[in-house]
Please model this.
Amino acid sequence: MNPLFEYNLNETRRQFLGSAGMCVGGLALNMLLGKTAQAQTPARVHPPLAGLPHFAPKAKSIIYLHMNGAPSQLDLWDHKPGLQAYFDRDLPPSVQGGQRLSTMTSGQQRFPVAPSKFKFTREGKCGTWISELLPHTAKIVDEIAVVKTVHTNAINHDPACTFVMTGSEIPGKPSMGSWLAYGLGSESNDLPAFVVLTPRFPASGNGQALFTRMWSSGFLATRFNGVALRGAGDPVLYVQNPAGVSSQDRRTMLDALSQLNQRNFERFGDPETQTRIAQYEMAFRMQTSVPNLVDLASEPQHVLDLYGPGVREPGSFAHSALLARRLIERGTRVVKILHRGWDQHGNLPQALKNQTMDTDQATAALVIDLKRRGLLDETLVIWGGEFGRTVYSQGTLTRDNYGRDHHPRNFCMWLAGGGIKGGITYGETDDFSYNIAENPAHLLDMYATVLRCMGVDHERLTFKFQGLDQKLTGVEGAQLIPALLA
Amino acid sequence: MISLRTLAVLALVAISVRAEEPIQFNRDVRPILTDACFSCHGPAAKKGGLRLDQRDSALAAAIVAGKPEASELVRRILSNDQDERMPPPSSHKTLKAHEKEILKKWIAQGAGYQKHWAFEAPVKTALPKSPANPIDWFIAQRLAKEKLTGSPEADRPTLIRRVAFTLTGLPPTPAEVENYLKDASPDAYKKMVERYLGSKHYGEEMARHWLDVARYADTHGLHLDNERQMWLYRDWVVKAFNQNMPFDRFTVEQLAGDLLPKPTPDQFIATGFNRCNVTTSEGGSIDSEWVFRNAVDRTSTMTEVWLGLSAGCAVCHDHKFDPISAKEFYSLYAFFYSAAGPALDGNKLLTEPTIKTSSPEQDKKLATLVKQIADLQMEIKEKVKSLKYDDPAAVKDADLKKLDLTKSLQIWIKQNGGKDNKALPQDIKNLLKLAVVDPNKLKGANEVKLREYYFEHVCALTKPEFDALTKKLAAVTKERDDFDKSIPGTFVFKDMPAPRESFVMMRGQYTKPGEKVEPNTLGVLPAIKKVGPRANRLDLAHWLVSPEQPLTARVTVNRFWQQYFGVGLVKSSADFGSQGELPSHPELLDHLAVWFRENNWDVKALTRLMLHSATFKQSSRVTPELWKRDPENRLVARGPRFRLDAEQIRDNALFVSGLIHLEMGGRGVRPYQPQRIWEPVAFSGSNTGTYTQDKGSALYRRSIYVFYKRTAPPPYLTNFDAPNRESSCNRRERSNTPLQALQLMNDVQHFEAARALAERMIIEGGKSPAERIAFLYRTVLSRAPESQELAIVQQALEQNLARFAKDGDAAKKVVRIGESQPKTGLAESEVAAYALIANLVLNLDETVNRN
Model:
C-alpha cells in the first residue's frame, strides 16, 4: 500500500443513482427494479443534442436514394433537344474550356457530342421535362424539386462518393446520416438512428465499389455509424440467436447478466456499466423489432403491388424502398439506399435502361406511399448520384449507342417531401449540359438546404476535431438555397 | 446510447497562483487572454490595431512592462465605465478578481511571453529528495491542490489482470494468478510485470496500437481495394517491440531505414511505415494528383504521429491557429514528394518499390533452380544448332501445297505470320509479325529464336527429340516461379534517383503549383541539421528525435500514457497545437518526456516506470462525487478502468476457451465473418471481392493477424471501435452500443468459445455446478465468484439444464456451433446448458473491461 493514498468510500448505490439522473441510468434503474424492458416503455434513449433542432423542423427523417456510379443527367433529366443537330460533331472547345478530364478520355482524339437517344416529355401540372426511362417517376414530378445544377469537387468515383456522403473527399469525415444521428438522435428506442441498405443491381451495371466510410461516423463516436441492414443473412449483424438458443434462453441469460452487472456497478461505481445494462436490453428488443421490421406480412397487397415486382425479395431495390418507409415509420432518422451499377462509360442506352427499370417504379412508389400515409410532409426524400456524365461520347458513337465519362461540373438531383417546394426545376445548364448557366447548387449547398429542412443550421452543427469546428458543409461557407424550400 | 462520460466537463486548467510563485505566461496568463481577449485582439482579429497574442503589439499599445499602473490594459480591465471596460459588456465576458490580479502581477514581473507550451523545451522538475516514483509525486501534488486523495491499491487479482491485458492483450491464466497471489516477497508485483514484459505477446499488444498509428492494412484501400502484401512490416513492428528497440531507432528506421548506411533487409522493411497509406488505381486517375495526395498523407501522418500537430489545415492555407504556414507544410512534404515507384498501385499485390526477404538457404535454392533453367535452355540451344535440317520448302520445285507446317519452317512462318495464334507465346508472335512486315529483319538472333521454337515445339520431325527436355524445363520453371512466390515481399520506401521539385500547392490543388520549396522543418522549432546540401528524410528522422526538438518525446510518452491509463495527459493525443487540449499535468508530462529521452528512449523502461507507479496500481472504484467531478479520470484519483479494445475482447474469448492458436506472424488470416460483408460493397473486379473463410487453426489466431480489408474491415472489430485504417488513428473511441451486445451474445466466434469453455468447465472444473462456476470465474475474471454471484449464476444454470434436458434437438444444435469438434463423451444437454453460462460470463461488464 502506498501511504500517499487514503481512501474512504462509503457511498451507496442509491445515492449515486439519485445524483446521476440520466436517461440511461434511469432506464437501467427501472429494469433493475424488476421491471422488464417489455413492461416499461423507456424514455427516449437517443435524445438530440442540447439546443437542437435549431428551428422547427419541416422533416423528421430522410430517405436518401443514392444511385452509385453517377446516372446520366443527359438521358434522364436535362433535356437538350438542340443536341440532335450536333450529333457526332466535336464539342466546341469554348464549351469545354480546357477543364480537367479524367484520364479515361483525356487521351481521346475527338470529343463527339452524343445526344440522348431517349424521348423527353413534359409531365405533371408543373410540366417538368423527364425522360421516357422514368415513366413512374414521371407521375410524381409535381412532388419533387429537380435541381439541374448540382456540382461537386471530385472527378473519380472513390473521392466523389466519399464527398457526396460525407461532404469531403478525404476519408475520415462523418457521413451525413451520422451527423444527423449525432445532432438529432433517434425517435426509436429499438432501431438504429441511421440505417443503410445496399440492394443488388442489374448484371449489366458497372458495379463501382461502396465503402463502409460512406456510412461511417468518422470522428464522431462510433455509435453514430450507419447500421447496414443486409439483404442476405441476418438483417442486422448478429441479431439472431445461435442455433438452438431460444428467446427465452436469452431472457434467462439477460436476467442473470443484469443482476451480475449491477453487482459489478456496486463494486466499481462506473456509470458505463449502467449504460451497458441498458444496451443489452436494447439488443434484446432489437431481436424482436428487427424481424418485425423485415416481416412484410402486414403490408396489404395493393401496397406491395405499388412497389412492383421483386418487392418480396430481400435485397432487391423495391424491397429496400419498402423497408425504408417501414424504418422511418418506426422512428429511424436517416435511411440511405445505395444502389450500384450507374457507371456507363460504354453501352449506356441499354445499361441505363436496365438500371431505371430496376429502380423507377419503387422510387415513385415510395413517394406515393409516403404521401398516402401522410408521411411525406415529415420525410425528406433525396435522389441523386456522385457526379454527372459528359455530353461527349466515350468510345464508339452511333445514334443508338454511346458511353459517357465522368462530369462533376453539373448533374441532377431531386428532393421531395418535408420542407421542399414540389413541382419545380431549379438551375439551368448550357446547351450542352456541360456548364452551369444559372443558379449553381454545390453539393454542400444542397446539404445546407437539407439540414435546414431537418431544423438544423448547418453552421451550428459542429464537432471539434483536428483543431477545427468541423461541419458537414465544410469551411468554405455553403449557402442555403431558399428557392427549394416550401 | 448516451455516454455519461460526455455529460460532465471538468475544468482542469483553473490553477490558482500562489503569491510567491513567479507568473508563467502559458500556465497563468494565456488561458485568461484566450478566454477573454483573443477573439477581438488575437490571431483572427485585431480591433483597435491591438493583438494581445504578440508581445510587440501588446507593448506598443496596451502594456508597459513592469508598470501595471501605467498600462492601458490594466486601466481598462479595472475601469467602471461601461464604455471603457474590457472585455466590453457586449462580449458577455468578464474577468474575475483573481484573474485581474494575475494580469497585474504578470505585467509587474515584466510581461514575459512564452511560445505555445508545446513548442517550449520540456524541463524536468527538481523533485524533493527523489521519491519512489516521480509519477506519484506529480499526481499527489495535483490531488492535494484539488483537495482530493488517491485510491488504495487494487487487489491482486485485479492487478494481475490489469497488467496482463496492458502488456500482452491477453488475460492471465489461473496458474499465473495463483503464483502471484502466493508470492509473499516484496517484489512480487515487479516480478509479475517482468514476466509479461518478457512475453512474446508483449510485442503483439504494443504493435497493435502502433499499427493504428501507422494505418497498416492488407488492402490498398481505394477503388478495387485489392490485396497488398506488407505483413512483413506488421511482423517487424512486433519484433521491434519484443526486442525493445529504442524509440529513436524505431523512428529512424521507419522514416528513413533506406537511407542508413548499408541498410539491412529489416531496415528496408521498416520503411513500410510510409507505404501504409491508402492508394488507388482507379481508371481515369491522374498521376500527378496521386503523387500529391500520397505525399500529403505521408506528411500529415508524420506530423501527427511525431509532432502531435494536425497539419491538415496548412495543405490549403496558413494554419489559422498554429504556426504552420502553407510554405512550411510543403517544405515538410518535400521530404516525401520524391517517392520512388508509380503514383498508382496498379492493383498489384506488390507495388514497387518492394523487397523480397529470402534467407541464404532460399537464395541458394533459387540460384540452383535458375542455373538448372539456364542449363536446360543451353542444352536445347545446342541441340538445335547440331540439328541437320533442310527446309523442304527450300528445295527447288517443291510442291508447297503438299507441304505441312509441321514439316517446313518457312510454311509455318508464312501461315502464322501476323495472326493472333493464342497458342504461341507473345515474343514468338511478335517475331512472326516482324517476319510478315519485313522478312529482312528476321536475321541473326531473331532467326535463331524462331528456329529454336519451331524445332522444339512445332516440327514433327524434331519435336519428339525435345519433348523430354521441354517438359523438364517447364517443370523447373514452374518450381522456380512457385518458390519465388512463396518468398514474401513487402512494400518499402525509397526516393527517386533525382528528386522532384516541390512547390506550395495553392489552396491544396495539385494543379496549382506556387512558390518552390526545399525540404525543411517548421520555423517555430529548432533548425534541422542537414548532412548533405539538401536535407533528406534521414536528417528529418534524426531531427525528430534530437534532444532540442520539444515535441516527439512529449507526444510519445503521452501516447504510452494513454495506452496504459486510458486517457492521455494531453487528451487530444494527436493535437498538441493551440487547438488541442492542455495537459492535465504539464510538469509530469515534461518530466516523463525528458526522462524518456535521457533513458535512451527505452520503451520497456518507460513502461516499467508507469506500471510500477502507485498511480497505476490504484483501485478503479469510484464514488459518485468523484465521478461527477472527474468522469474521465483526468486527475487519476483512481485506477484506470476502461473497456477492452476490440482485439482484446476477441482474443480473450479465444484464450479462455482454449481454442486460441498463438502462432505469430505471416499473411493475414480470415476467421469467421458474417456472410456478405465484402460482397455487397466490393468492386466487381476486386480480388478481395469474395470472402473465403479459413479453416482449422487459422480461425483461432490472434486478432492482430486478421486480414484487414480497408473498405470493409472485420465487422467484429469495427463494432468495438477498431478504425478502418484509412488514415492514422492515434486514439480510438470507446463506444457502448447494442450492436456490441448482439455480437458478444451471438457471433459464432464468441459462442463457439463459450461452448469450448463449457466443455472445459465440465472436464477441468470439478464435479459440482458450484465448482464449475468457480472454475469459470477464475478462468475468465481471475477471481472466485462471490456467494451472491454464485447463486445468480447457479439459478440460471438450473433453468438451462432443465430446458435442454427437455429439448435434445436444441442442445444438439448448440454444441455444434463453430467448426471445432465438440468433445466426445459429454452429455449434450449439459454442455448446452453450460455453454449459455459461459456465454453469460463472457458478456459481463467486468469481463469486457480492464478493471
User: Anything to note?
Assistant: The two ends of chain A are 69 Å apart (CA to CA). Chain A is about 30% helix and 15% strand.
